[in-house]
Amino acid sequence: MATGLKIAILFFGTAHLSLEWKTPQVEEEYSLSQNETVELKTTANLYDQRIILDYIFPLDNVDEKHYINFKCINISSSTWIYDIRGCMKSSWTPYRYMNGVPSDEIKVWQITRTSTSLVVVCNGVIVLNFNFLTDYRDEFNRCHELWTRESNAIVFRLPYGLYGNSGPMLIRIPSSGWKTPQLGLSYSLYLDQTLELKTTTNLEESPITVYFIDHYFINFKCISLYSNTWIAVIRGCMTDSWGSAINMNGVPSDEIKVWQITRTSTSLVVVCNGVIVLNFNFLTDYRDGYSSCHGIWTSDSSTIQFLWSGGMYGDTSHLFMRIPSHGKFI
What we know:
Number of strands: 24
CATH class of the largest domain: Mainly Beta
Strand content: 35-45%
CATH topology of the largest domain: Jelly Rolls
Low-confidence stretches: 1-18, 326-330
């Protein structure tokens, strides 16, 4: 279970989040599908105030509930615990801890239900990565079956699940915004912002090449559909050839993939359908004597581009992109 990893991702999942924060309302349904992300902002540190987010599964009986319930039990140590209904007994004890929750008064939470896990990111830290197949407790072995079904909405059912009656909590709702990337066009993207790409079929030997700084890029592709093997080249950090490529680990085999690519002040991070498949540290992971990697990739840059027609995942009919509305947690 991966927790406590600082990745500074804005959109974890397929959702592109709207600009406006809203106050969540009890029993109001918010459209949200699998692999989409909902953002919550808490603006004060409160003790013992729950956030209870219900996922609506169309085939559930009226009395069936599947939710994540989490709260802070110690403000000074920023200790948070959680409960996932259908995967463990619905009680706070024994405590199940979220790991590494930042102590900041203002917190932005990204919650994503993927095909394998429920992932919670707080101010860029993965504080929970709960695998439905392996992390369930006691006799709740139907956890994976229940939580990986098709779901179309979320809801806050109870007033006391709104983090103190919603005063210090806000929500942002996903919206659409996929576009076909255009060759040679510059897209605004700064350090710590996340680029989302969506591939809609599995293609072999069809690179995706994204230029970040001048002529420095990440270039990645699948070299075997049978084994689902993906490799990457980061120009300026290794020899610019596939022979020097590094492996991307654990890329999901799903036909539809949503990739989040984030250049931070230390690393280039690639997430695919909720799985961190590459976390390349510029200072320590460079190859072939490319010690200037860190200086190159952490320099100022405000745009990304697609400059190579061969790096558009075929003919772009299977590649889409979204640009985040903002890039840092505020």
